[in-house]
Amino acid sequence: MYKVNSKNLKGSFSISNLILFIGLISLIVVGLAIFPAKIKEVLYTERVEAHNSDFYYYSTNEVYRIKFYYIVDSKEYSLITNANKDDKNNYDMTIYYKKDNPKSAISSFEIDKANDQFFLLLIPSILFLFGIIMTIKNLIKLLRVRKLLKKGILVKNIPYMLIDKKAEINGHKIMAYCITYTFPNGNTKELLSNGIHTKSSKEGECDLLYDPEDYSNYYIDKNIQTTGKGNPIVIYYQ
Question: Contact at 8 Å (CB) between 156 and 138?
Fold first, then answer.
Protein backbone atom coordinates (compact mmCIF):
# COMPACT_ATOMS: atom_id res chain seq x y z
CA MET A 1 0.00 0.00 0.00
CA TYR A 2 0.97 3.63 -0.48
CA LYS A 3 0.64 6.93 1.36
CA VAL A 4 0.13 10.35 -0.25
CA ASN A 5 -0.15 13.93 0.96
CA SER A 6 -3.84 14.19 1.93
CA LYS A 7 -3.70 17.99 1.63
CA ASN A 8 -2.83 17.78 -2.06
CA LEU A 9 -5.25 14.90 -2.58
CA LYS A 10 -8.17 16.92 -1.27
CA GLY A 11 -6.97 20.26 -2.59
CA SER A 12 -9.37 20.23 -5.55
CA PHE A 13 -12.26 20.24 -3.07
CA SER A 14 -11.28 23.81 -2.10
CA ILE A 15 -12.37 25.15 -5.49
CA SER A 16 -15.62 23.16 -5.64
CA ASN A 17 -16.45 24.09 -2.02
CA LEU A 18 -15.81 27.77 -2.78
CA ILE A 19 -18.11 27.64 -5.83
CA LEU A 20 -20.76 25.79 -3.81
CA PHE A 21 -20.54 28.39 -1.04
CA ILE A 22 -20.79 31.38 -3.40
CA GLY A 23 -23.69 29.76 -5.29
CA LEU A 24 -25.55 28.89 -2.09
CA ILE A 25 -25.12 32.33 -0.49
CA SER A 26 -26.19 34.01 -3.74
CA LEU A 27 -29.26 31.77 -3.93
CA ILE A 28 -30.19 32.63 -0.34
CA VAL A 29 -29.73 36.39 -0.85
CA VAL A 30 -31.70 36.49 -4.11
CA GLY A 31 -34.27 34.06 -2.76
CA LEU A 32 -34.93 36.20 0.33
CA ALA A 33 -35.57 39.15 -1.98
CA ILE A 34 -37.97 37.26 -4.24
CA PHE A 35 -39.74 34.39 -2.50
CA PRO A 36 -41.59 36.25 0.30
CA ALA A 37 -43.63 38.10 -2.34
CA LYS A 38 -44.16 34.91 -4.37
CA ILE A 39 -45.33 33.03 -1.27
CA LYS A 40 -47.77 35.80 -0.41
CA GLU A 41 -49.08 35.74 -4.00
CA VAL A 42 -50.04 32.10 -3.42
CA LEU A 43 -51.36 32.46 0.15
CA TYR A 44 -53.20 35.76 -0.27
CA THR A 45 -56.01 34.47 -2.45
CA GLU A 46 -58.33 37.48 -2.32
CA ARG A 47 -57.86 40.56 -4.51
CA VAL A 48 -59.27 44.06 -4.60
CA GLU A 49 -58.43 47.31 -6.41
CA ALA A 50 -57.17 50.28 -4.39
CA HIS A 51 -59.53 53.26 -4.42
CA ASN A 52 -57.28 56.00 -3.04
CA SER A 53 -53.65 56.72 -2.12
CA ASP A 54 -51.30 59.15 -0.38
CA PHE A 55 -47.56 59.68 -0.58
CA TYR A 56 -45.90 58.16 2.45
CA TYR A 57 -42.29 59.09 1.72
CA TYR A 58 -39.79 59.13 -1.11
CA SER A 59 -37.43 56.20 -1.43
CA THR A 60 -34.70 55.80 -4.07
CA ASN A 61 -34.38 55.08 -7.79
CA GLU A 62 -37.76 56.64 -8.57
CA VAL A 63 -39.45 54.24 -6.14
CA TYR A 64 -41.83 55.76 -3.60
CA ARG A 65 -43.51 54.48 -0.48
CA ILE A 66 -47.21 55.05 -1.10
CA LYS A 67 -50.16 54.39 1.17
CA PHE A 68 -52.99 52.71 -0.71
CA TYR A 69 -56.54 52.40 0.60
CA TYR A 70 -58.80 49.49 -0.20
CA ILE A 71 -62.23 48.33 0.94
CA VAL A 72 -63.17 44.83 2.04
CA ASP A 73 -66.69 44.08 3.30
CA SER A 74 -67.49 47.79 3.56
CA LYS A 75 -64.46 48.42 5.78
CA GLU A 76 -61.51 50.50 4.66
CA TYR A 77 -57.96 49.22 5.10
CA SER A 78 -54.58 50.70 4.14
CA LEU A 79 -51.33 49.27 2.86
CA ILE A 80 -47.99 51.08 2.74
CA THR A 81 -45.99 49.66 -0.15
CA ASN A 82 -43.37 50.48 -2.75
CA ALA A 83 -44.69 51.87 -6.00
CA ASN A 84 -43.65 54.02 -8.92
CA LYS A 85 -44.27 57.73 -8.46
CA ASP A 86 -46.78 57.61 -11.35
CA ASP A 87 -48.94 55.26 -9.26
CA LYS A 88 -49.83 58.02 -6.77
CA ASN A 89 -52.75 59.19 -8.84
CA ASN A 90 -53.33 55.85 -10.50
CA TYR A 91 -55.48 53.69 -8.27
CA ASP A 92 -55.26 50.73 -10.59
CA MET A 93 -53.17 48.94 -7.96
CA THR A 94 -54.28 45.44 -7.11
CA ILE A 95 -54.10 44.49 -3.45
CA TYR A 96 -53.70 40.81 -2.53
CA TYR A 97 -54.98 39.98 0.96
CA LYS A 98 -55.82 37.06 3.23
CA LYS A 99 -59.49 36.20 3.32
CA ASP A 100 -59.57 35.80 7.09
CA ASN A 101 -57.32 38.81 7.74
CA PRO A 102 -57.71 41.67 5.19
CA LYS A 103 -55.06 43.72 7.04
CA SER A 104 -52.43 41.22 5.88
CA ALA A 105 -51.82 42.28 2.29
CA ILE A 106 -49.31 42.87 -0.48
CA SER A 107 -49.49 45.03 -3.61
CA SER A 108 -49.27 43.88 -7.21
CA PHE A 109 -46.23 46.17 -7.56
CA GLU A 110 -44.24 44.00 -5.13
CA ILE A 111 -45.38 40.81 -6.85
CA ASP A 112 -44.57 42.12 -10.33
CA LYS A 113 -41.16 43.26 -9.07
CA ALA A 114 -40.46 39.74 -7.73
CA ASN A 115 -41.53 38.25 -11.07
CA ASP A 116 -39.20 40.61 -12.95
CA GLN A 117 -36.28 39.63 -10.69
CA PHE A 118 -36.86 35.89 -10.98
CA PHE A 119 -34.20 35.58 -13.70
CA LEU A 120 -31.59 36.67 -11.11
CA LEU A 121 -31.80 33.14 -9.70
CA LEU A 122 -30.27 31.79 -12.91
CA ILE A 123 -26.61 32.68 -12.27
CA PRO A 124 -26.42 31.47 -8.62
CA SER A 125 -28.32 28.33 -9.63
CA ILE A 126 -25.76 27.61 -12.35
CA LEU A 127 -22.90 28.26 -9.90
CA PHE A 128 -24.44 25.98 -7.28
CA LEU A 129 -25.09 23.22 -9.83
CA PHE A 130 -21.55 23.55 -11.20
CA GLY A 131 -20.19 23.27 -7.65
CA ILE A 132 -22.22 20.10 -7.07
CA ILE A 133 -20.95 18.57 -10.32
CA MET A 134 -17.35 19.45 -9.41
CA THR A 135 -17.79 17.95 -5.94
CA ILE A 136 -19.19 14.71 -7.38
CA LYS A 137 -16.28 14.49 -9.83
CA ASN A 138 -13.81 15.09 -6.99
CA LEU A 139 -15.43 12.38 -4.89
CA ILE A 140 -15.17 9.93 -7.80
CA LYS A 141 -11.52 10.93 -8.27
CA LEU A 142 -10.89 10.45 -4.54
CA LEU A 143 -12.37 6.94 -4.66
CA ARG A 144 -10.21 6.10 -7.69
CA VAL A 145 -7.07 7.30 -5.89
CA ARG A 146 -7.93 5.21 -2.84
CA LYS A 147 -8.08 2.23 -5.16
CA LEU A 148 -4.60 3.16 -6.41
CA LEU A 149 -3.28 3.26 -2.86
CA LYS A 150 -4.11 -0.42 -2.53
CA LYS A 151 -3.17 -1.86 -5.94
CA GLY A 152 -1.31 0.77 -7.97
CA ILE A 153 2.25 0.77 -9.34
CA LEU A 154 4.55 3.54 -8.12
CA VAL A 155 7.07 5.21 -10.42
CA LYS A 156 9.53 7.45 -8.56
CA ASN A 157 11.55 10.49 -9.63
CA ILE A 158 9.88 11.43 -12.94
CA PRO A 159 10.93 14.85 -14.30
CA TYR A 160 8.09 17.39 -14.30
CA MET A 161 7.29 20.90 -15.46
CA LEU A 162 4.92 23.15 -13.54
CA ILE A 163 1.82 24.26 -15.47
CA ASP A 164 -0.21 27.30 -14.44
CA LYS A 165 -3.90 26.29 -14.24
CA LYS A 166 -4.98 29.94 -14.51
CA ALA A 167 -6.78 29.91 -11.17
CA GLU A 168 -6.17 31.31 -7.71
CA ILE A 169 -7.36 30.59 -4.16
CA ASN A 170 -6.70 33.13 -1.42
CA GLY A 171 -4.21 34.90 -3.69
CA HIS A 172 -2.19 31.73 -4.36
CA LYS A 173 -1.83 30.42 -7.90
CA ILE A 174 -3.04 26.91 -8.62
CA MET A 175 -0.36 24.90 -10.42
CA ALA A 176 -0.09 21.32 -11.72
CA TYR A 177 2.76 18.88 -12.30
CA CYS A 178 3.04 17.93 -15.96
CA ILE A 179 4.95 14.76 -16.87
CA THR A 180 5.46 12.56 -19.92
CA TYR A 181 5.46 8.82 -19.28
CA THR A 182 5.55 5.68 -21.43
CA PHE A 183 3.34 2.90 -20.04
CA PRO A 184 4.20 -0.82 -20.34
CA ASN A 185 1.95 -1.12 -23.42
CA GLY A 186 4.19 1.37 -25.27
CA ASN A 187 1.77 4.30 -25.16
CA THR A 188 3.38 7.61 -24.22
CA LYS A 189 1.08 10.13 -22.56
CA GLU A 190 1.35 13.61 -21.12
CA LEU A 191 -0.18 13.54 -17.63
CA LEU A 192 -1.29 16.36 -15.34
CA SER A 193 -1.63 16.27 -11.56
CA ASN A 194 -4.46 17.73 -9.50
CA GLY A 195 -4.27 21.44 -8.84
CA ILE A 196 -1.73 22.19 -6.09
CA HIS A 197 -0.26 25.07 -4.11
CA THR A 198 3.50 24.78 -4.35
CA LYS A 199 6.66 26.86 -3.99
CA SER A 200 8.62 24.31 -6.03
CA SER A 201 10.76 25.38 -8.93
CA LYS A 202 9.38 25.10 -12.44
CA GLU A 203 11.25 21.86 -12.99
CA GLY A 204 12.02 18.94 -10.70
CA GLU A 205 10.99 15.37 -9.95
CA CYS A 206 7.71 13.90 -8.79
CA ASP A 207 6.11 10.46 -8.44
CA LEU A 208 3.43 8.69 -10.47
CA LEU A 209 1.00 6.13 -9.07
CA TYR A 210 -1.05 4.34 -11.74
CA ASP A 211 -3.52 1.48 -12.08
CA PRO A 212 -1.95 -1.38 -14.10
CA GLU A 213 -5.45 -2.32 -15.32
CA ASP A 214 -6.52 1.20 -16.26
CA TYR A 215 -3.84 3.69 -17.28
CA SER A 216 -6.39 6.54 -17.22
CA ASN A 217 -6.51 6.16 -13.44
CA TYR A 218 -3.38 7.78 -12.01
CA TYR A 219 -2.20 10.16 -9.35
CA ILE A 220 0.84 12.47 -9.44
CA ASP A 221 2.49 14.06 -6.43
CA LYS A 222 5.81 14.46 -4.67
CA ASN A 223 7.07 11.96 -2.08
CA ILE A 224 4.48 9.21 -2.54
CA GLN A 225 5.56 6.60 0.00
CA THR A 226 4.99 2.92 0.69
CA THR A 227 3.43 1.95 4.03
CA GLY A 228 5.09 -1.44 4.44
CA LYS A 229 1.75 -3.20 4.00
CA GLY A 230 0.75 -5.37 1.04
CA ASN A 231 3.11 -5.90 -1.90
CA PRO A 232 3.88 -2.47 -3.35
CA ILE A 233 5.59 -2.30 -6.74
CA VAL A 234 8.10 0.55 -6.97
CA ILE A 235 9.90 1.52 -10.18
CA TYR A 236 12.59 4.21 -10.37
CA TYR A 237 12.34 6.31 -13.51
CA GLN A 238 15.37 6.25 -15.78
Answer: no
The per-residue pLDDT for range 22-63, each reduced to its tens digit, is 999 998 998 888 888 888 888 898 989 888 877 666 555 556
pLDDT per residue as tens digits for the range 177-223: 899 999 999 899 999 887 776 665 677 888 999 999 999 999 988 88
Burial class (CB within 10 angstroms; exposed 0-12, middle 13-18, buried 19+) of 148: buried
CA–CA dist 222, 125 (Å, integer): 37
Contacts of residue 176, defined as CB under 8 A and 6 or more positions apart, other chains included, come to 162, 163, 165, 192, 193, 194, 195, 196
* pTM given for the model: 0.60
Would you say how long the chain is, in residues? 238
What one-character-per-residue DSSP string does 161-225 give? EEEEEEEEETTEEEEEEEEEEE-TTS-EEEEE---B-----SEEEEEEEEETTEEEEEEEESS-E
Tell me which H or E stretch contains 157.
strand 153-169
Exposed e or buried b per residue across 183-192, where buried means at least 16 C-beta atoms within 10 angstroms of its C-beta? eeeeeeeebe
